[in-house]
Write a structure and sequence with these properties.
- This protein is α+β, with helices and mostly antiparallel strands and 447 residues long.
- It has 3 domains: 9-205, no CATH class; 222-245 and 397-447; 253-395, Jelly Rolls.
- The chain has helices at residues 195-202, 225-249, 398-427, 437-445, and strands at 9-12, 19-22, 30-32, 39-41, 49-51, 67-70, 73-84, 89-97, 101-108, 111-117, 123-125, 128-131, 134-154, 163-171, 174-180, 185-193, 253-262, 269-278, 283-290, 297-307, 313-327, 330-334, 338-346, 349-361, 368-371, 376-379, 385-393.
- The chain has an 8-stranded antiparallel β-barrel with strand order 7-8-9-10-16-15-14-13.
- A hairpin with a 2-residue loop joins strand 6 and strand 7.
- The protein is elongated.
Length: 447
């Protein structure tokens, strides 16, 4: 549209004499003077006054006459009205383009929607309505919307106090509204606008960021739904990458085996094995400690990797144990004869493996003798406990893997919780039954 568009006419306000631009000449029925607020019948050749306002025209977020481009169409704001249903109030801007006709820009709680009037009624499917290939579910019913303020020009004789019965159907991101009075019915689809889109079109402040405790619009889409859908593929790829790293880099190599034995309840045994050479720095080491014949007792196993050059020691500890018996419930056993020890990071060098073990026996019966050399009692007639150690370079830390998986899952799970909180706040306004899991997921499934 250009400033000299043939659809623009001017007339003199009969109340204050101000010259008023009528931008949709031939369509406009009611016109409000931008200087004094007088409401004028634009169809009357004498510009008859319908009613007069004695207050200054409201300060509008989009001044009448402002032009902006939405969805590829240049619109001009030509009318503004304020409505209320007794609980909440909202503003509606009438936009006009001589080629595209009219549409509505609706503002409520800092959020904006673009309303398009339907030329045909939607199809009813049970309690739902289907329009523009979208399914809408009932949300509000039986509300009365009343005009409380008005300014600009309109295509019908609007006045303060005008009321319509409103019924709204919602699909996240869209609202289908039926407004009716005793003469006619009008259907409108309102599409929620992002802050970036409304600001680019009319240079208005972006809507506030939703926070828990705030009430969203009935059709406002969850700000977390798209993030959840976008994050799950990233989480799945990250999980696969971690699993591959665990398989490829978490194995062991170049195993070396050592063995020793200890007498149950006898003296502690200490033995040194080696050399163990690590050509590369900061390598993990795995020690498998197996006691195949421990029975009715336990073995304390201490291992230390001692650097031959620096005498630095890197230690680990395990207990292998085995108990069994029979009671009224039958045979039972507990304990583990095998343990895996891991040392996270050893510098490059040559090491000795120093092993200290002590075997213990537990029994309610048996004979014991005093070992003067060891200074302790020991069980008689029990064979020595064998300890087999297998040392290998590398280690698989499953706990680190699951910790990484948990860190990957935290963002989408947190967003899912916030999405549910958002949907609860949105659906709390809904007429009828409370929200359920399907309602929460609808915001994620809907485009």
């Amino acid at each position: 549209m250009s400033p000299d568009d043939s659809s623009v006419r001017t007339l003199s306000c009969p109340a204050c004499g101000g010259m008023i631009a009528m931008r949709a000449a031939g369509y406009t029925v009611t016109l409000a003077c931008e200087y004094c607020g007088t409401l004028i019948d634009a169809t009357n050749p004498d510009a008859r006054i319908i009613t007069r306002y004695h207050e200054v025209q409201a300060s509008l977020a989009i001044p009448l006459g402002t032009r902006g481009t939405l969805r590829g169409v240049e619109w001009e704001a030509i009318g503004w009205l304020q409505r209320s249903d007794g609980w909440v109030s909202w503003e509606e801007y009438l936009l006009f383009n001589p080629y595209a006709g009219y549409c509505w820009l609706i503002a409520q709680n800092g959020q904006w929607s673009l309303g398009t009037m339907l030329t045909a009624a939607p199809q009813r499917d049970g309690s739902d309505q289907i329009a523009a290939s979208r399914r809408f579910s009932p949300f509000y019913s039986g509300n009365t919307a009343r005009v409380t303020r008005v300014a600009g020009e309109f295509y019908w004789r609007v006045k303060v106090g005008e009321e319509v019965r409103a019924t709204d159907y919602v699909r996240p991101g869209f609202m289908l509204s039926l407004e009716q009075d005793d003469q006619e019915k009008n259907w409108t689809i309102s599409e929620w606008l992002s802050g970036r889109e409304i600001r680019a079109a009319f240079d208005v402040d972006p809507p506030p960021t939703w926070l828990p405790g705030m009430t969203p619009l009935a059709h406002q889409p969850s700000p977390y739904a798209r993030r959840i859908k976008g994050w799950w593929p990233i989480a799945a790829l990250s999980f696969v990458a971690l699993l591959l790293l665990l398989i490829l880099l978490g194995g062991t190599m170049q195993p070396q085996s050592f063995s020793l034995s200890a007498t149950p309840d006898g003296p502690a045994v200490s033995q040194t094995f080696g050399p163990i050479r690590l050509p590369l720095g900061r390598q993990a080491m795995t020690v498998e400690a197996v006691t195949p014949n421990v029975e009715q007792g336990w073995v304390d196993i201490d291992v230390s990797f001692v650097d031959r050059k620096t005498q630095d020691s890197y230690d680990a500890y395990a207990i292998n144990e085995r108990y069994s018996g029979r009671d009224s419930d039958g045979y039972w056993s507990e304990g583990d004869r095998s343990q895996t020890l891991k040392v996270a990071s050893l510098p490059a060098g040559t090491y000795d493996l120093v092993v200290d073990v002590k075997a213990h026996h537990w029994s309610s019966s048996g004979s014991f003798s005093y070992d003067s050399a060891g200074g302790a009692y020991k069980a008689d007639g029990l064979p020595p406990v064998e300890i087999v150690l297998t040392v290998a370079r590398g280690a698989r830390f499953a706990s680190n893997f699951w910790l990484a998986v948990l860190m990957i899952l935290v963002p989408p799970l947190l967003m899912l919780v916030l999405h549910i909180v958002f949907e609860n706040a949105r659906l709390a306004q809904k007429d009828g039954s409370p929200a359920d899991a399907d309602d929460w997921l609808q915001g994620i499934r809907s485009p």
